[in-house]
Specification:
The complex is a heterodimer of chains A (792) and B (292). By secondary structure, chain A is α/β, with parallel strands linked by helices. Chain A contains 21 helices and 32 strands. Among the domains of chain A are: 228 residues, 3-Layer(aba) Sandwich (Dimethylsulfoxide Reductase, domain 2); 140 residues, Barwin-like endoglucanases (Beta Barrel), CATH 2.40.40. In chain B, a hairpin with a 4-residue loop joins strand 5 and strand 6. The chains are: A alpha/beta (792), B alpha+beta (292).
Chain lengths: 792, 292
């Protein structure tokens, strides 16, 4: 989230799209209802299904799975053709005025620089024009035909209401009713928020959907303001923390970069990773990258990290290739992965194309599952259809504590790191994750010491200074993450103190200030709220720097006056900023630098060269789509996604009979697969089911409460039919398209589920987003039929 | 200090028989207020109810609905009911917390022939006492909301007791505590009425012109009230438009049963003589008239 949960109450418009917070974030969702009732806000849902969020919303728009960019692009066009943008904001705080290279273009579904051979873009033409002083050329009038604002207008001009309706399958009129409300916040006295979740990310264009949402919010002047922002609702209680601490491929803690093979020295890595300012007036905070990186290396390698060995830079892996989720399993599928450790995760059920995952797991030599529960993944060899006799994978299961059985921190969607206490003792014989990982470390280290081995320095020199090195306390880890000043031995209080000379350490610069000499800031529970906006600066710790709304400098105009004094993020008094913890120095005057301190432009990017698949977004169909791409038939899908070997054959193709759109989702009664172990929750939502629109059910002879069978090119599920009025037929490119919904929470092993029913991911395709490779769980094709009642 | 458990009525027991110290002026009169427009159907209340009251987990099976159980039971005192309703182009997914409304004039209590099996407290709570229940199920017929459920194994009837053990020590009921959106609120009934008025206004501002408070006069008002967005479509929420607690058709029968219950040794035998002399408690006459 750019903002935070309680801040949603400050909005005038709450757009929920690609999310279902009533079901997946019910506690945080109370703030959306508070905005609706106390603030007179309009609560809107745009979704392939009428959800429990829609049930309490003011308006709902049903769309076809995978048509999000068409909808959002249509909203951008609606803003620009009706002059609904927040003009002063756009001029002050975005790169609307930046002039783009004359070589940039977009034609027939492809941006300039497309290289067919590599399925990639050469981004040379996606660049700014430079003036003689080396900085970017700008046109404050926004009239230059090559300025971002004009390019944006031209690009999205194709997303007419008629085109939106044709792609998404909704009515033009309903789209426009929605558009009028959403686009009503492009004024100083109104503000709107977007709540999104994996309904946006889990597409082959997922990153671009989010970018389109960001562009929309920037045009409306909603980023950085209380009641505004673009707010990712993260999965379980600590997904935000997991991302911050790099439990995803491609980043190091604090969103630092993974070294590449070409970066053979620390200096080369730092140079390549530290951006140079593009305009004279930018804070360009990533300019401090070397301080963050060296402090991270000091946290990991301690006294062994010296200037002589480039602070242990060479101990880091420099992977040549992709290590995202899909790529890991692709390696396993092709027999190139020996073993796999999974911790706090049920990879078999959580990944796409389970039949393929089962084969991948069967080709591992060993797999270790570390979890409080005996997961389906640990018992993959007895999944339906598997023959254990043919599987040689050795599976090791290590029972560990559940989070309720230990202390630690959760970082919520709003970036609030909150310390929690242990609630109950673990069962006898169950060890903590820290014990398991420490033992793993020590035993590998001891093996190296006994037997030697190639390049053991990274292990031998890893810092492991804990009271009990066999089971560190989580508070010790929290302090290490916060970081120390090595000259004084004191905990740091701000990442502003970090140095690139080895004088400081920090396991994650964003968390510096979370555990200081004054104590554990994450454990604070002060409820004071002097701003009245729900910021609560004395409650827990919000990264970065305890700032509650990111980019809050943009909540005020060029002179530092809040756009809306009743909802001021920060305000310039003439001497200092008051309100939230300001983006830059408390006494830095408003005209000193651009509002967006993390960009080398100093402003937000309506046009961005950072993406793999285009500086603007574009509607591409899901890889399995019931229709052609109405914008450009020759380029139906995202042209730069990665196709793993053999995956094309697993997708519905010409002549196959998979006419229906399908999407998968979660329900409020369950948390992923874990709650199949909680009898009361199994009672509340007992069985795997299939949500089927009334008309389709009638056509197929499927009765409500009866059974239905759904199959894709990859697999088949069977479950109880919920026949519903909440999913309507859609008219897409002149053809009726039905949408079927499938929940994810069921597996075949463990738990108390009384059905041991089907797994949604038997159906989903093994393909991912062009930027993140997040799988396309949310839009694919199926067929459906009535199934006979089960013998009881 | 006022007694949070001061008694107002006891089933099949004339008020003269209720010990004076139990009848002394009670403390606050409470009510739950369920704002249906804020209910997201998460079933948190349903689960919390089971957990707090130690109710048995029942094996459920999906019957073509997001609803967990088809009906209330003696082990499921609170059920979220889901109903998809379409009026023209307007699709409404109505989700209602179904549980005892704790009537001010409780039909169950009036119908009950077993002395002490149903107790109404001054604070508004109507509680079943299984130890005194004779399993006659008159309360089931007497309830205008179809709430109490008979348990075949224990031969007693059960329903929501408003977490009386929590209320007694100043806590809110478990469903209120767990509700993530504050759709269920708890407090002094007068305050809840004022809050309801505000909520009705909010709903009207949002375009629900028929928004209304549900606190039916035919049962003297209730201690679980609803604010309903579609006050003109109560049947869609399975809420009776004009519920009445009327003991009349059951009266004769209940007297017979009551006698039977004493013969079977239930209840307070020593009170029998007094009971026969004074007769069963009758509510004030006007209380039985449906209110406009």
């Amino acid at each position: 989230m750019t903002n935070h949960w309680k801040d949603i109450k400050n909005a005038d418009v709450v757009l929920v799209m690609g999310a279902n917070p009533a079901e997946n974030h019910p506690c945080g969702f109370k703030w959306a209802l508070e905005a609706r009732d106390e603030n007179g806000a309009k609560l809107l849902t745009i979704d392939p299904r009428f959800t429990r969020t829609s049930a309490v919303a003011d308006k709902h728009l049903q769309i076809r799975p995978g048509s999000d960019i068409a909808i959002l692009g249509g909203l951008i066009r609606h803003i620009l053709t009706n002059d609904l943008h927040h003009a002063d904001y756009v001029r002050a705080h975005t790169n609307a005025s930046f002039i783009i290279s004359g070589d940039f273009g977009f034609e027939d579904g492809l941006f300039s620089g497309f290289e067919e051979a590599g399925s990639r873009y050469d981004k040379t033409s996606w660049s700014y024009q430079r003036a003689a002083d080396g900085y970017v050329r700008r046109d404050p009038t926004l009239e230059d035909p090559q300025c971002v604002f004009q390019l944006l207008r031209r690009h999205y001009d194709r997303y007419t209401p008629a085109m939106v309706a044709q792609i998404a399958g909704c009515s033009e009129q309903k789209f426009l009713e929605m558009a009028d409300i959403i686009c009503s916040t492009g004024r100083a006295d109104r503000v709107g928020t977007i709540m999104y979740a994996v309904g946006w990310t889990m597409h082959t264009v997922g990153s671009q959907i989010i970018r389109t949402g960001a562009i929309l919010q920037l045009l409306l002047g909603n980023i950085g303001r209380p009641g505004g922002g673009i707010n990712a609702l993260r999965g379980h209680a600590n997904v935000q923390g997991a991302t911050d601490h790099a439990i995803v491929a491609g980043i190091l803690p604090g969103y630092l970069k993974v070294p590449t093979p070409e970066q053979t020295t620390l200096a080369e890595h730092l140079e390549a990773s530290t951006p140079q300012p593009l305009v004279p007036d930018t804070v360009n905070y990533w300019g401090n990258y070397p301080k963050f990186m060296v402090s991270l290396l000091k946290a990991w390698f301690g006294d062994s990290a010296t200037t002589a060995n480039e602070f242990g830079y060479h101990y880091l892996g420099k992977p040549d290739g992709d290590a995202t989720w899909l790529s890991i399993w692709d390696e396993a599928y092709h027999g190139r992965l020996e073993g796999f450790i999974t911790l706090g995760f049920n990879p078999l059920l959580a990944g796409p194309d389970i039949p393929r995952l089962l084969q991948s797991m069967s080709r591992l030599k060993w797999m270790t599952v570390i979890d409080p529960f005996m997961l389906d993944s640990a018992e993959f060899w007895k999944a339906p259809g598997m023959n254990p006799a043919e599987i040689d994978t050795e599976v090791l299961y290590l029972p560990t504590t559940h989070w309720i059985e230990r202390d630690g921190s959760f970082t919520n969607s709003g970036r609030w790191a909150q310390w929690k206490e242990k609630a109950i003792d673990p069962p006898d014989g169950v060890r903590s994750d820290t014990w398991v990982l420490s033992e793993l470390f020590w035993r590998v280290k001891e093996l190296y010491q006994q037997d030697g081995g190639a390049y053991d320095e990274p292990i031998q020199n890893l810092t492991w200074n804990y009271l009990n090195p066999r089971e560190p306390l989580l508070t010790e880890l929290a302090k290490e993450i916060n970081g120390y000043d090595h000259a004084t031995g004191q905990l740091l209080s701000s990442f502003g103190q970090l140095q690139a000379d080895g004088g400081t350490s920090s396991g994650n610069w964003l968390y510096t200030g979370s555990y200081t000499e004054a104590g554990n800031m994450m454990a604070r529970r002060g409820t004071a709220d002097p701003t009245g906006l729900g910021m609560h600066h004395e409650w827990a710790f919000s990264w970065p720097a305890n700032r509650r709304v990111l980019y809050n400098r943009a909540s005020a105009d060029a002179e530092g006056r809040p756009w809306d004094p009743t909802r001021a993020g920060i305000a310039w008094t003439g001497r200092e900023w008051i309100g939230d913890v300001p983006d830059y120095g408390r006494t830095t005057p408003p005209d000193a630098a651009g509002a967006f301190i993390m960009t080398e432009e100093g402003v937000a990017r309506l046009f961005s060269s950072q993406m793999a698949d285009g500086p603007f977004s574009e509607h591409y169909e899901p890889v399995e789509s019931p229709t052609v791409n109405a914008l450009h038939e020759s380029v139906p899908v995202n042209p730069v996604i990665n196709w793993y070997d053999g995956v094309r054959e697993t997708l519905a193709s010409e002549g196959d009979d998979f006419p229906h759109a399908c999407t998968i989702y979660r329900v409020v009664e369950h948390e992923h697969f874990v709650t199949q172990n909680v009898p009361l929750l199994v009672e509340a939502m007992p069985d795997f089911f299939i949500e089927i629109p009334e008309g389709l059910a009638a056509e197929k002879g499927i009765e409500n409460g009866g059974r239905a069978r759904v199959w894709s090119k990859r697999g088949e599920v069977e479950g109880v039919a919920i026949v519903t009025k909440r999913i309507k037929p859609l008219l897409v490119n002149g053809r009726t398209v039905w949408t079927v919904g499938i929940p994810v929470h069921w597996g075949f092993a463990g738990g108390t589920s009384n059905t041991h029913a089907s797994m949604a991911n038997l159906l989903t395709p093994f393909i991912g987003d062009a930027n993140t490779r997040c799988p396309e769980f949310k839009a694919f094709l199926v067929n459906i039929a009535r199934a006979e009642p089960r013998a009881t | 200090m006022p007694d949070t458990l001061a008694i107002k009525r006891i089933s099949a027991t004339p008020s003269a028989l209720i010990p004076l110290e139990s009848l002394r002026s009670g403390g606050p009169v409470y009510s739950k207020l369920v704002d249906i427009s804020k209910c997201i159907g998460c079933k948190g209340c349903e689960v919390a109810c089971k957990e707090w009251n130690d109710l048995k987990v029942e094996q459920t099976a999906n019957f073509g609905s997001m609803q967990s159980h088809k009906d209330l039971s003696s082990n499921t005192w609170l059920l979220m009911r889901f109903n998809e309703v379409e009026v023209g182009d307007d699709l409404q997914w109505l989700i209602k917390k179904d549980a005892c409304l704790h009537c001010e004039e409780p039909g169950c209590l009036f119908a009950c022939p077993a002395p002490g099996a149903i107790v109404q407290y001054q604070n508004g709570i109507v509680d079943f006492n299984q130890d005194q229940c004779i399993g006659c199920q008159n309360c089931v017929s007497g309830c205008p909301f179809d709430i109490p459920r008979f348990d075949k194994s224990t031969k007693t009837v059960a329903k929501c007791n408003m977490c009386i053990d929590r209320v007694e020590v100043g806590l809110e009921p478990a469903c209120v505590k767990t509700c993530p959106t504050n759709a269920i609120q708890w407090g002094i009934k007068e305050d809840m009425l004022a809050l309801a008025e505000k909520k009705v206004e909010t709903m009207k501002r949002r375009g629900y012109e028929h928004a209304a408070l549900y606190n039916p006069g035919g049962v003297g008002g209730t201690h679980m009230m609803y604010v309903v967005p579609h006050g003109d479509r109560l049947e869609d929420y399975s809420l009776p438009a004009h519920p009445v607690a009327s003991p009349a058709p059951l009266h004769g029968l209940s007297v017979l049963r009551r006698v039977g219950s004493y013969l079977l040794g239930f209840g307070v035998v020593s009170a029998l003589a007094h009971f026969l002399a004074v007769g069963p408690e009758s509510p004030e006459d006007e209380a039985w008239e449906p209110k406009p």
